[in-house]
Amino acid sequence: MVVRFSSLTAIVGILALALTSGCGYLPSEDTVRTAGKPGAHARVTVKTQTVSCGTPARGFRTMGFKEIFTFNRSDNPAFSESGKLPAQFDVYAYVWGHQDCRKTNSCGKGDYYWLIERGPGNDFSTWVVTPQHPHFTIQSSCRGQLKVGERYRFSFSRGKLVGFSR
Question: Which PROSITE patterns match (predicted)?
Answer without folding.
Answer: PROKAR_LIPOPROTEIN
